[in-house]
């Protein structure tokens, strides 16, 4: 059986302008991709990402509007600042920072979300699956991963 990386997709509610793209995300995502919709990428709590890692994802994609076209003016710039600070924690727990990818989408980017996810899946297949990472995250948070 072919290895299919597990991906957590955090999607801004406003970033997919194409009805066809949004329909694909809502109804045709591969089962290896878990969708979490948020009002803005600036509303992503770092604990959401830690929970995804602890849950065994191989990669995380964050999809938002172009910085100059954010529905909440500067929400995605806030997300980018959080992301930059969050990379240090990822390094600490041993989660390769390349496994977290930001994608800024524009109105003209029809079909881009599908291409970005497919490219990310290929990239993750080339990396070795994260082993025992959930245990490290659990130990870091003081929990148990049974």
UniProtKB/TrEMBL annotation:
Q: Which residues form the F420-non-reducing hydrogenase iron-sulfur subunit D domain?
A: 7-127
Q: What class of enzyme is it?
A: oxidoreductase
A Pfam match: FlpD
Q: What is its EC number?
A: 1.12.99.-
Keyword annotations for this protein? Answer: Iron, Iron-sulfur, Metal-binding, Oxidoreductase
Does S-adenosyl-L-methionine appear among the keywords?
no
Recall the GO molecular function terms of this protein's record: iron-sulfur cluster binding; metal ion binding; oxidoreductase activity
Instruction: Give the highest taxon in the source lineage.
Output: Bacteria
List membrane-spanning regions.
Answer: none
- Which InterPro entries does the annotation name? MvhD/FlpD
Q: What is this protein called?
A: Putative F420-non-reducing hydrogenase iron-sulfur subunit D
Source organism per entry reads: Candidatus Brevifilum fermentans
């Amino acid at each position: 059986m072919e290895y299919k990386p597990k991906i957590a997709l955090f999607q801004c509610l406003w970033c997919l302008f194409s009805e066809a793209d949004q329909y694909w995300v809502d109804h045709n995502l591969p089962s290896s991709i878990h969708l979490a919709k948020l009002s803005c990428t600036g509303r992503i709590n770092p604990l959401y990402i830690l929970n995804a890692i602890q849950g065994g994802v191989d990669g995380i994609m964050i999809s938002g509007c172009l910085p100059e076209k954010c529905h909440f003016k500067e929400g995605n710039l806030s997300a980018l600042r959080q992301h930059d600070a969050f990379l240090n924690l990822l390094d600490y727990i041993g989660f390769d920072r390349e496994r977290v990818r930001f994608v800024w989408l524009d109105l003209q980017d029809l079909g881009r979300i599908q291409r970005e996810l497919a490219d990310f899946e290929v990239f993750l297949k080339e990396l070795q699956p994260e082993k025992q990472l959930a245990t490290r995250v659990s130990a870091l948070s003081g929990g148990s991963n049974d």
